[in-house]
Specification:
about 500 residues; about 20% strand; alpha+beta; six-stranded mixed beta sheet; single chain; eight-stranded mixed beta sheet
C-alpha cells in the first residue's frame, strides 16, 4: 500500500488563486447576500463608506446569527457543510462564497455575529497571512468589536450577522479617483442585486445605504394581455423537477414608464433575451440562449424562466460564483419546445405589434386589407359613437365639411414618420393615455353630452365609454354615469 502523507497547501499561493476566481464587485456583493437568505433574515442592509481613511462595505442582516464555533467554521476555506441538507432557501453550495467573494474585492474582512445575547467576531487579514504564509485568523476582543463600523446596529438586533470589507487594493489599483470608482461600483451592484433577488422582494427587504432596492420583473407578468405567458413544463430529472415557463414581453414601443422601471430601465432589451436560470428562486444567469437559440432582433422579446432545485447543481455545472451554468444534455431537447414557444411569440409581436390594436371595441381607426393588391387602407371608423353623434347634430353643409376633414386626415397620414418612430427603440409614440388624465377625459365626455341634442344621453355615454378613446374609464363607468347624468 502506498505511503500516505498530509500536506497543507501554502497559504500565500492558494489565496492568490482564490482571489482570481473571477468575481466582479457586483457578483461578490450578491454572494454575501446569499448567506443571509438561509439564515432566515428578513432584512439585509448594504452600508458603504467611500471617503475617509478606511472605506468599507458592510453587510448587516437580522438572521439567526452564529455561535463562536459556527463562526469559526464559516471562516474556514471550504467550511464544513455536513448535515446541511438542500432546501428551498439554501443558496450556498461549496462553503467558499463568504471567503472567496470577500477576498476577491478586499484584503481584510471581518465577520461579527450575535446569538443568545453574545457577539463574537473573527477577522481574515490577507496581509497577516501573506507575511506568515500560514492560515491565520484573528479573533477580535470585546474592545475591538466595539470599534467595528455599524456594530451598534447589530447590537440592536436580537440576533444577526455583520460582514465588513476593508482595504480595497484592486479598486485602488485601477481607479484614478477611488471615491468615484467605488461609488459607481456600489451603484452597479445595487442594480445587479435588484435583478438577482427580484423574486425575494415580497419576503426580504434589501437596502443599500438605508434605501430599499427597487422592485424588478424581467417578464412583466402584470402586463397581460400585452405580455404573453406560454405553457409551463415540468421536466423530471433524477426524481426532481425543473420548471420551465416561456414569456414574451409586449412590443417595446408600447412599454410604459412603470414597466421600464420594472425591467430596470434597459438601454436595449436585445441583450436580455433568452434563458433566465434560477436556483432556489435566486437568478443565476440570464441574457443567453445557451446555444439553443439565435440572439436576434426578432427574438428580443423572448424570455424563458427555468427553475432548478439546488439538489441538481451538479448536472448544471454551476460555478463557485453562482453566476454561470450550462444546460445539461439530458433536458436540452425538452427545452426546445419552450424556446420555440417564446421565440415564435416574440417574432409575431415584433412583426405585427398592432394586431391587438384591432381587437378593441368601437375603434377610432379601421384597417381594411386588399389581399389581391397587397395593400392596407386605414380609415376613420364612421360607426364610432362620437363620429355618429357629430354627423347627427351637424347641418347639411357642416356634415359635408366634416366628411372632407376626415377624408383629408385619412389621406395625410405621416406613414414614414410613424414607421421610423415605431422601430426606434429610443422613441415612444405617445397616445391619449400618456397625454390626458382621467379628469380630462371625463371633462371631454361632459362637454360632448352638453353639446349634443335631446337624444338618450345615457345610451350615448354608454357607447362612448365602450369606445377605444375612453376605454381607460370603463372600469369606473357606473360612477362616471352617476356623476355626469345625475343618476341615483
Amino acid at each position: 500500500m502506498a505511503r500516505r502523507i498530509t500536506k497543507e497547501p501554502p497559504a500565500k499561493t492558494l489565496i492568490t488563486g482564490i482571489r482570481a476566481i473571477g468575481y466582479s464587485f457586483s457578483t461578490a456583493v450578491a454572494d454575501i447576500i446569499d448567506n443571509c437568505i438561509p439564515a432566515k433574515a428578513t432584512r439585509v442592509d448594504v452600508i458603504t463608506e467611500a471617503s475617509g481613511d478606511n472605506p468599507y462595505v458592510g453587510f448587516l442582516d437580522n438572521g439567526f446569527g452564529m455561535s463562536y464555533d459556527e463562526l469559526e467554521n464559516a471562516m474556514l476555506m471550504g467550511s464544513n457543510r455536513e448535515g446541511r441538507a438542500d432546501c428551498e432557501i439554501e443558496l450556498g453550495r461549496f462553503g467558499l462564497g463568504l471567503k472567496a467573494a470577500s477576498l476577491s474585492q478586499c484584503r481584510v474582512f471581518m465577520v461579527a455575529s450575535k446569538l443568545a445575547g453574545s457577539i463574537n467576531a473573527i477577522a481574515f487579514d490577507l496581509n497577516l497571512i501573506e507575511d506568515e504564509d500560514e492560515w491565520l485568523l484573528c479573533v477580535l476582543s470585546d474592545e475591538e468589536i466595539l470599534e467595528l463600523p455599524n456594530i451598534d446596529k447589530l447590537r440592536e438586533y436580537e440576533s444577526g450577522t455583520l460582514v465588513i470589507w476593508q482595504d480595497f487594493d484592486k479598486i485602488e489599483g485601477h481607479s484614478k479617483r477611488f471615491e468615484d470608482t467605488f461609488r459607481n461600483m456600489v451603484a452597479e451592484a445595487k442594480k445587479h442585486v435588484e435583478l438577482v433577488f427580484h423574486r425575494f422582494y415580497s419576503t426580504h427587504e434589501i437596502y443599500f445605504n438605508f434605501r430599499r432596492i427597487e422592485q424588478r420583473d424581467p417578464f412583466l407578468r402584470g402586463s397581460a394581455p400585452r405580455q404573453q405567458t406560454g405553457h409551463t413544463e415540468h421536466l423530471k430529472v433524477k426524481d426532481h423537477y425543473i420548471v420551465v415557463t416561456p414569456y414574451t414581453l409586449p412590443f417595446w414601443n408600447t412599454i410604459t414608464d412603470d414597466e421600464k422601471a420594472l425591467l430596470g430601465y434597459p438601454k436595449s432589451i436585445h441583450d436580455d433575451q433568452g434563458f433566465y436560470l434560477y436556483r432556489n428562486k435566486r437568478l443565476i444567469s440570464w441574457g443567453s440562449w445557451f446555444r439553443m437559440g439565435l440572439k436576434s432582433e426578432q427574438n428580443k422579446l423572448a424570455r424563458i424562466q427555468v427553475d432548478v432545485p439546488s439538489i441538481l447543481d451538479s448536472i448544471w455545472m454551476l460555478d463557485v460564483k453562482k453566476s454561470s451554468a450550462r444546460i445539461p444534455d439530458v433536458i436540452r431537447e425538452e427545452l426546445r419546445a419552450s424556446v420555440r414557444d417564446s421565440s415564435v411569440r416574440s417574432k409575431k409581436t415584433v412583426r405585427f405589434p398592432g394586431i391587438r390594436e384591432q381587437l378593441v371595441e368601437n375603434p377610432v381607426w379601421v384597417r381594411t386589407v386588399n389581399m389581391n393588391e397587397k395593400t392596407a387602407l386605414y380609415s376613420i371608423n364612421r360607426d364610432n359613437p362620437l363620429v355618429v353623434e357629430l354627423f347627427g347634430n351637424a347641418g347639411k353643409g357642416e356634415a359635408r365639411l366634416l366628411e372632407i376633414l376626415l377624408s383629408q386626415i385619412e389621406t395625410s397620414l405621416p406613414k414614414h414618420s410613424l414607421w421610423n418612430d415605431h422601430i426606434d427603440n429610443d422613441v415612444k409614440i405617445s397616445d391619449r393615455g400618456n397625454i390626458l388624465d382621467a379628469e380630462q377625459l371625463i371633462g371631454e365626455l361632459s362637454d360632448i353630452l352638453l353639446m349634443t341634442g335631446p337624444s338618450d344621453k345615457a345610451d350615448l355615454l354608454g357607447k362612448l365609454l365602450s369606445s377605444e378613446a375612453y376605454s381607460a374609464l370603463r372600469e369606473n363607468g357606473e360612477c362616471i354615469s352617476r356623476r355626469l347624468l345625475g343618476d341615483g
